[in-house]
Amino acid sequence: MKQHLWQIVVLALLLFSSCRQSEKHIVTYAFQEDRALVGVTDADGKTAYLIVDPNLEVISYIHLTDVRLDTVFRDGKLQFQDVHTGQNGYIDREGQVFFLSSNEAEQAEVSNTEVAPEPQPQQANVIQTNDWRHVIEQSPFYEEARKTFAGQLEETDAENRRMILDYVEQLRQSYTTKDINFIEQVFSERALIITGKVIRTGAEEGGRYLPQEQVVYNIRSKAQYVERLKQIFQANRRIDLKFSDFKISRHPTIPTIYGVSIRQAYTSDIYSDDGYLFLLWDFADAEAPKIHVRTWQPRLLDNKTVIPENEIFSLRDFNLK
């Protein structure tokens, strides 16, 4: 296993220098404290991780397996947990691995409890902010982050877009870490959840058999969607989401409304898919923005036919009056 990981890391380094992105899938998480976690997944679905600095110099390779990794450094530590034993630990800025004993973990929890403020329900979805100014070019958030910090947007618009970057990254992590609480918080109580699936129709009029692929949409309430997610989280040990083609659009006449379009690759123990995700965000309450609409559509109508671009959901498809 270690030898295989080393092979992936070597390929990752080659990919950094040659940008052969078609052969490997790279996920670069946001820089925090001048460090970023990079994941490289090969064609067999095996992922290796490394830590880089803002100059893309490799600080360290991560040789741990079967652990849940945090995605950003916090106070100089990248936290992890062994999925089998539940043992906690961290990786420091130089890549050194430290496992915490049970006593150390308990002391850390007590220490955090003593210094943490009393939680307030209305602050439930306060999230970790990231320094998007240093996101690297391979990140799916790169173009929108660059636009956000280019200094050409008015202040409120730029701040809303920065918050969207933070929220969407944490939303992605929530599926991986099965954080159902955050997902419940970020969707409005009256959220509209639309999910598409491909079906094949049979006999046509006139007796001809012309198989066709059609997309049928299921509409769920927030409560139904959350309940379904709980079942999915329980049924799968591993869930992974990878984003690409990330785009933020502001409504032309309602400045508090934003649309976020994403291509999403979803992989779990029992199911995988590739499609287009759309989220309609409302910043009427700037301190706690909400998702009013979530849609997902399959990318392929059959093994080779891509869904037409004009059929992919966007802001234009929703009446906000």
Helix content: 25-40%
Shape: globular
Order of strands across the biggest sheet? 10-9-14-13-12-11
Number of beta strands: 14
**Main β-sheet: number of strands, strand sense, barrel status?**
6 strands, mixed
- Broad structural category: alpha+beta
Distance between the termini: 56 Å
Spans of at least 5 consecutive residues whose pLDDT stays below 50 are 1-23, 104-125, 201-211
Strand content: 25-35%
Summed up, the helix count is 6
Order of SSEs: HEEEEEEEEHHHHEEHEEEE
Quaternary form? single chain
Give the integer mean of the pLDDT values: 77
Q: Provide the gyration radius in Å.
A: 21 Å
What can you see in these coordinates?
- The protein has helices at 2-18, 102-115, 142-148, 155-177, 180-186, 222-235; strands spanning 25-28, 36-41, 47-52, 58-62, 67-69, 77-82, 88-92, 97-99, 187-203, 209-220, 239-250, 257-268, 272-282, 290-298.
- It is of the alpha+beta class.
- The strands form three sheets. It has a six-stranded mixed beta sheet. A four-stranded antiparallel beta sheet has the order 1-2-3-4, with helices on one face.
- The longest helix is centred in the middle third of the chain and has 23 residues, at 155-177.
- The model is unreliable at 1-23, 104-125 and 201-211 (pLDDT under 50).
